[in-house]
Design a protein that fits this description.
- By secondary structure, the chain is of the alpha/beta class.
- It starts with a helix and ends with a helix.
- α10 (286-298) packs across α13.
- Helices cover 50% and strands 11% of the residues.
- The protein folds into 3 domains: 45-235, Glycerol-3-phosphate (1)-acyltransferase (3-Layer(aba) Sandwich), CATH 3.40.1130.10; 239-282, no CATH class; 286-369, no CATH class.
- Strands 1, 2, 3, 4, 5, 6, 7 and 8 form an 8-stranded mixed beta sheet that branches.
- α4 links the parallel β3 (86-91) and β4 (109-112).
- This is Phospholipid/glycerol acyltransferase domain-containing protein.
Amino acid sequence: MAPDLRHAARVILGIQAPEEGGGRMRRFMYDLTRGIACFSLFCYFREMRLHGTRKVPRDRAVMFLANHQNALMDPLVIAAFTPFRTYFLTRADVFINPMVNQVFGFLRMLPVYRMRDGRDTLGRNEEIFENCTRILRGRGHILLFPEANHNIMRKVRPLSKGFTRILFAALEKHPDLDVLLIPVGINYENAAGFPDRVAFYFEDPIPARAFYDKEDIPGSVSRIKQKVSETLENSTTHIEEEDSYAEKLEYLHGLGVDLTDPTQTNNALRLYPHGPKKSGQRRGGILQGLLKGVFFLLNAPLILFWRLIIKPRILEVEFVSTFRFGYVFVAQPLFYILLWWICYTQIDALWATLLVAIHFLLSLLYIKAGRSA
């Protein structure tokens, strides 16, 4: 592809220009994959918003520290829509075979081993931590989930000290290195629902060395964890008390607040239970119901296969959206190819293309106008 055409494609797709040097084909394939992911996620989500990405410096070592609700969807949106070439630390149990490992490696995902993966696997983390140090030394970007697990509940859970181990190892090995910590609040309207809305909030950078004292590592760990946790609690909906979680969530639904806006939700929670009682929840109208019916009729085979065969086999609700997106990513294009071929054999190529385009546009209209269910 000519350089100017390649540049134009990157501009259209919103993709950052690849660094110069070797591995051009690998970088081109990565950019192409990210472009496809951008388009697919655009078609999957009703709305996606990223706030504060301009706060992220391009020429500094950065650790993104995000809350974790929605399995692989959390890093996927960041990888696709931010202009940063980020590496992602991912739970090792998703690296299930050599082929999958190659794909994840291509997508810059690094496995992290936990006690539940077996005590004998923990030693492999040392090599991963060394890789992280090299990435930070090269002014790269790493995304970690400091809660060390995922949970669909709207709450920032206690942070693990795992990210501080990686951070302090890099700072001790390279005294001239200054890593910026950037908390990222991830907010879904309904993480397991479809079509869904999501908003990412990139907070102000935190200089790691301001909290690091090599003579007081336990104190340094405590201070950094507290600072990151407080920032995440402000940048995502944080319902702290588990015994009143359901009541508070129902309270937010009743107010009709935007669940992707942590300022709205947390301000409303501060008034609980003395806040306004009347329901502000928006209800679907006739048009939305009609669009939903048309969407189901147009995609009935795919929807029924999902609901009856695939979804019941998903053991963790946090993976529902991940598997749904992966299923749609593979099945929908095949469905359109089959539909086009049937229409082509029965009518002609022009009408086949037109009918497939109408089908796609009607489905997209429902996704962009619909509400999570």
